[in-house]
Specification:
The structure is a single chain. The chain has 297 residues and is mainly alpha-helical. The chain is built from 12 helices and no strands.
Length: 297
């Protein structure tokens, strides 16, 4: 009995080409990932490099400090340089602005989304759409009008001036996310609670907010990072040394005849620790809060 070789046909001939294209695609993706990581890590590496220099030499040709030292961090922590005289006070100002902005953004955004989405207000969609329209105008264009308004209300050089500005820019996004996420919460839960005699405030506090926890974490983290990293409004609205935040105080280093780059980079690294820690602590809840509404809606 003879054995006849059977040709696999076009599908068999296409298989090597498919594997080759797949390997090339994976190699290109890996090369792009390496390039992206290098592009992202290089500035961070330079920050650490300069902060470990004894004299903050940013123009050295070395790839690592010859005599690395943590002295810069100690100077920052102990406020041992005249530009760092109020570092912890300014750090506290940043914490205060970030916490107040986060709280007010969550409060206003959740109340607005609850009123529009759960209490079924007539033409409530106009409120959310009008809020999102504020993003049409760049925030930098509104800096001078905001400054003029705060002057008229006696809030110049006041932390609450910055808080009001940051809440204004964070709240429309919060309302949008809360509305999208709220679609995944069955309205029957609210109706059952009302039948049992719950007031709208009780429904908001005992049903709506607990079920909105992932979205609250996501929006709260966004609002905190927005306030933490903001510079323009803090620079314009805060003028005295004791009312400044760390980003504004960092810019003051550049006014010195001898810019202490190592102190500046050490200050920036210390200032970046809280938001980085918060992001990695809540990154999974952030992902759930930003995507669950879109998946279930």
């Amino acid at each position: 009995m003879s054995v006849v070789a059977v040709d696999g046909g076009p599908a068999a001939r296409r298989r090597p080409n498919y594997r080759r294209r797949r390997n090339l695609t994976e190699a290109a993706a890996m090369a792009f990932a390496v390039l992206l990581i290098f592009w992202t890590v290089t500035p961070l590496y330079n920050m650490v490099f300069v902060s470990l220099e004894s004299h903050g030499d940013v123009f050295t040709s070395n790839i690592w400090p010859v005599h690395p030292s943590l002295k810069s961090f100690w100077i920052v922590v102990t406020q041992g340089y005249w530009y760092l005289e109020y570092f912890w006070h300014q750090f506290g100002n940043s914490l205060y602005i970030g916490a107040a902005t986060t709280f007010l953004t969550l409060l206003i955004g959740s109340l607005a989304s609850f009123s529009i989405g759960r209490m079924r207000l007539k033409n409530g969609w106009l409120v959310s759409n009008a809020a999102l329209l504020t993003y049409v105008i760049p925030a930098s264009f509104l800096a001078i009008p905001f400054y003029s308004i705060m002057i008229k209300y006696g809030l110049a050089n006041n932390l609450w001036a910055v808080i009001f500005a940051e809440v204004t820019f964070a709240t429309p996004y919060a309302i949008f996310i809360f509305q999208q996420y709220g679609v995944s919460i069955p309205i029957e839960l609210d109706e059952a609670a009302r039948i049992d005699g719950a007031s709208p405030l009780q429904v908001y506090l005992r049903i709506y907010l607990p079920l909105m926890a992932p979205a609250l974490v996501a929006v709260g983290t966004y609002a905190l990072l927005l306030a933490w990293n903001e510079y323009l409004y803090q620079f314009m609205l805060l003028s005295s040394v004791k009312s400044m935040t760390v980003p504004v105080a960092l810019a003051q280093f550049l006014n010195s005849d001898e810019a202490p780059w190592n102190y500046m980079m050490a200050t920036a690294i210390i200032y970046a620790i809280p938001p980085v820690a918060i992001y990695y602590a809540f990154r999974q809840r952030m992902t759930a809060g930003l995507t669950m509404g879109g998946v279930k809606g």
